[in-house]
Amino acid sequence: MAIRAAELGLPAAIGCGEVIYDQVVGADLVELDCAGQLVRVLR
Predict the structure, then answer these.
(1) pLDDT mean over 5-28
(2) DSSP per residue over 1-43, as a string?
(3) How far apart are CA 8 and CA 25, in angstroms?
């Protein structure tokens, strides 16, 4: 999936772990800061 995301120029959080995945999967809005290596649930 990392290769696909790169081909399409899309940011992606690959291999972020179960804890972050569990937080993101139920979120309505997520901020993905690739430069800062940050995944933040906003809502």
Answers:
(1) 92
(2) -HHHHHHHT-----S--HHHHHHHHT-S-EEEETTTTEEEE--
(3) 22
